[in-house]
Structure formats: C-alpha cells, structure tokens
Amino acid sequence: MPWIHLHIHTDPDQAEILEDLLLAAGSAAVTMQDQEDQPLYEPELGSTPLWQSTRVTGLFDAGADVESLKEQIAADFHQQTQSALEHIEVELVADQDWERAWMDDFHPIPFGERLWICPSWHTPPQEDAVNLMLDPGLAFGTGTHPTTALCLKWLDGEDVTDLEVVDYGCGSGVLGLAALLLGASTVLGTDTDPQALDASRENARRNQIAEERLQLFVPESMPDSQCDLLLANILAQPLMSLAPALAQRVRPDGRILLSGILASQAEELISRYSDWFAMAEAVEQDGWVRLEGRRRA
After folding, report:
1. In this predicted structure, what is the pLDDT of residue 12?
2. pLDDT for the residue numbered 271
3. Cα(184)–Cα(51) distance, rounded to whole angstroms?
4. d(Cα 293, Cα 263) in Å, to the nearest integer?
5. Domain 3-95: what homologous superfamily?
6. What integer pLDDT is reported at residue 232 of this predicted model?
7. Spacing of C-alpha 215 from chain mean position
8. Which 8-state DSSP code applies to residue 217?
9. So where are the chain's domains?
10. Residue 23: what are its φ and ψ, rounded to 5°?
11. Which of 35, 217, 225, 257 could hold 53 in an S-S bridge, CB 3.0 to 4.6 Å?
C-alpha cells in the first residue's frame, strides 16, 4: 500500500522532541537525515550527535488524515517548546515491496583474495572462498565502513591459523568471526552493549561457529589473559585511554590492529602505542586509517 512521509526541518535540540511527537501521532517509523551534507566526526563518549540542520521524517499510512496530523503535531510542539512549527512537508510514497527493496541494496562483498561477506539471502559467489554470512543489523556493522573493511583486508592477507584473538568492541562480531573462519583457534569478544553481544552470538550460530571458539563478555567480566592478536575497531579517544590495558592483553611478539581512526589522528595514536609496540605506517582508506603494531619483548 502507499505511504505518506511528513518531513520537518529542524535543529538538533528539537529533533528528538519531534521524533517523540511523530511516534505519538501514529508514525510507523521515524528517521533523521542530514540536510546540508555536514560531516559528523568523532563524538564525545556517551553522546549521539545530530546535524545542525536535520530533517525528521515520519512514515504514515496513506489513509491517515494529513491535515489533522499536521495540526496535532504543531499544537503539541508549541505546547512543549512555546515555539511555532513553521512548515511540515507532505510526500506521497509509491507502493513497493519495502523488504525486497531493502534486501536488494546488499550484495556479497570481497575483502582481499579469500574472504567474502555475504547476506544470508544470497548464494556465495565463490563456494570455496571463506564466506562469512552476515545480515545487515541495527548499527553493528557488516564490513562496508572503511574502518571495518581495512581490518578485514588485513585479516585476509595474514596467516592467523591457531592464533588466540581478542576482538575489543566486537559489535556484530564481524572481525572476530572472520578471524575464526580464517583459522584462528579462539576469539574473546567484548562490548559494552549487550545487544552487540547478542548480535555476535547470533552471527556465530549462523556461521556454524562452535560456542567454545567465540566467548563473549562485557569488559569488566573479561578474563585476565593474553592473546596473540588484539583487534580494536572503536574510536581514537577510547583507544588513547585504553592503550595500557590493551597493550597488557597482548603477548610479547603478539600483534595489535587498531581502526576507527581518522587520518588526522594517526600520528597521535602511533606515538601513544609506540611505548609498547613497534608500529607500522598507517594504511588509509577514505579518510580513515588502520594501525598495526608488534608487541616488544
């Protein structure tokens, strides 16, 4: 059936208020988009930044009374903010198979010579390749972002056979699972978000990874053990503060792989980790970098 979009242009302070009002008015979904192609770089820990010019969109059944919806949303907005809502744009969205349209956007992607990431509804292009079956999920990553792609290409080009690995900030588990499929013996994965651990666990099941090979923990419950390879695709700020703790987890002659880092932040991170590791030059893709180091004895 057809749908109606109600678009409202606003600023970050009012975007969440409008999201709540649209949902209260019966919106089936609410999205927020950048109106002026403004980049968002590394946020403060615990923050969820929005663009200075944000478009908030509510999705409604085409049979809804649009004028009444607009009046209700404007009145509720004025009651909460004492400000007038200047304009609500209405867009009729043609009928289509939304699930199919969404699925068609995702295709198998190669990372290096052996490794592919494949959505579950696709047949792997190369049956004899290392195929990681991973569906797009809520904010946890499928390898398409440059930071993850850089790490996956590194894993594909290395011999990780029988290595003990830590995936710090595991998210969907994409890096740890790739390491296991490429021959690592075990992975300890950790994340502060319980939903991420659930996603990792489900993705391991989908890829027929035995439970004992992928062990998942919140950070404070991680075993106090060392590994041959530590993967940390997070952000520069936590990588800076966590450097001593992450270094402690890597055995002498073990390796560390860091990503989630803007090119402008690379030198600072290299300097920080050089206290424990012999660091290689940064490898860059689309303004993001991957750093690699080997633990000194």
Report:
1. 76
2. 98
3. 41
4. 17
5. ACT domain (3.30.70.260)
6. 97
7. 20
8. E
9. 3-95, 104-295
10. -65, -40
11. 35
- Tell me which CATH code domain 104-295 carries: 3.40.50.150
Predicted TM-score of the model (pTM): 0.69
Neighbours of 74 (CB within 10 A): 17
Helix H segments across 104-235? 146-157, 174-181, 194-206
Residues sharing a CB contact under 8 Å with residue 197, sequence separation 6 or more, in sequence order: 170, 189, 191, 216, 217, 218
Residues in the chain, how many?
A: 297
Residue-level pLDDT at 106: 74
Position of tokens 């995936």? 167
- CA 117 – CA 247 distance, rounded (Å): 29
Cα of 191 vs its chain's centroid, Å: 12
Question: Whole-angstrom distance between the N-terminal and C-terminal Cα of the chain?
Answer: 65
Counting as low any pLDDT under 50, the low residues of the chain are 36-51, 138-140
What is the reported pLDDT for 197?
92
Residues 189/200, Cβ–Cβ less than 8 Å: yes
Q: What is the predicted pLDDT for the residue at 47?
A: 42
One fold for both 3-95 and 104-295? Answer: no
Contact status, residue 231 vs residue 214, Cβ threshold 8 Å: no
Report residue 279 as tokens.
């660091």
* Strand ranges (E), 62-197: 89-93, 109-111, 115-118, 130-133, 164-168, 186-190
